[in-house]
Amino acid sequence: MSPRQPVFTGTYTAIVTPFHRGKVDEKALERLMQAQFRGGVDGVVAVGTTGESPTLSTEEHIRVIELCVRFAKGRLKVIAGTGANSTEEAIHLAQAAEAVGADAHLQVAPYYNKPGQEGLFRHFHAVARATTLPILLYNIPGRCGVDISVETVARLAADSVNVVGIKEAGGQPDRVSQLRATLGPGFSILSGDDALTLSFMAVGAHGVVSVASNLVPREVARMVQGFARGKADLALKLHDRLRPLFKALFLETNPAPAKAALAMRGVIDEEIRLPLTRISPASRRQLKAVLKNLGLID
After folding, report:
1. Residue 235 forms part of a structural domain
2. Residue-range definition of the domain harbouring residue 173
3. pLDDT digits over 34-58, tens only?
4. Do residues 239 and 198 lie in contact, with contact meaning Cβ atoms separated by under 8 Å?
5. I need a labelling partner for 1 at 20 to 30 A (CA). Which of 114, 180, 273, 296 fits?
């Protein structure tokens, strides 16, 4: 059964992994983490999709989680992206995240091998049994090719006390309604899409795992907090202001636009690992125009 109060609420930044000359840029990562703390977010997701988890080595993966924990200094929750399409690998990463002090871990649905619902249940069940940390499931069928059914989510929550929530990136507000009706208000539901955050919260979600808050943590946090505190007009005003940025950050495959935007602001080098590449000149022009209109660059 889920707890009476959700464990995870608010804004969690899906933080990028900065690189310099092919290696993780630890100083830039510290700057990013400090900016998140100053911006008032509730936590970060380290080494998720936005953190380029598919192209980090195992050693780099664990190191980035360890660094985020160190830089957070207990002021922010660190949710470690430790999912994999190999159950053994997911268990290894989850245990490593626990060992370096992460507060929770995010478990994406296994991708490419396309397990059925029984396979998904057994996979997440095995990971849950291997760690004591709270687990957020991650449903993103557009990338993984499989959808974690509401019934499977409920079965996992009933089976494993540490399965406490889900990052929902299926794009359907009604899915949030289904999850709430089945699991109750104590099961954490976080939007996986900045542009849908208010839509999801309107039907019961508790916050967002945000890409945009890499750039505007304070504004995203105020939007989420405003809606949660009954200030819908303020939240909508912030949503309308930030909507062009939400759209621009997905002109091309995430996190290439986010890294381009951060580089335009002089925060990180614009390095991204193959098979992803830097954004096109056309996308760069559109992104730059949005940043200028928001006053984020000159």
Report:
1. no
2. 10-229
3. 999 999 999 999 999 999 999 999 9
4. yes
5. 114
Average pLDDT over every residue of 200-227: 98
Residue 74 and residue 109 in contact, taking contact as beta carbons nearer than 8 Å: no
Q: Concatenated DSSP letters for 2-62? A: --SS-S--EEEEE----EETTEE-HHHHHHHHHHHHHHT-SEEEESSTTTTGGGS-HHHHH
The answer to whether residues 195 and 141 touch, using CB atoms and an 8 Å cutoff, is no
Separation CA 245–CA 272 (nearest Å)? 20
Residues annotated catalytic, as ranges: 138, 167
**280 inside domain:** no
Q: 231 in helix, strand or coil?
A: coil
User: What amino acid occupies position 63?
Assistant: R
Mean pLDDT computed over 79-105: 98
Chain centroid to CA 49 = 7
Is residue 205 within 8 A of residue 12, CB to CB? The reply is no
Over residues 3-22, mean pLDDT: 92
Distance (Å) of CA 56 to CA 19, 63, 64: 11, 10, 9
Mapping DSSP to helix (H, G, I), strand (E, B) and coil, where does residue 276 land? coil
63 in any annotated domain? yes
126: CATH: 3.20.20.70
DSSP assignment of 71-94 equals HHTTSSEEEEE---SSHHHHHHHH
Residue 266 lies in a domain: no
- At 108, is the secondary structure helix, strand, or coil? strand
**Nearest-angstrom CA–CA distance, 172 and 213:** 22
pLDDT tens sequence across 225-245: 999 999 999 999 999 999 999
Q: How many structural domains are present in the chain?
A: 1
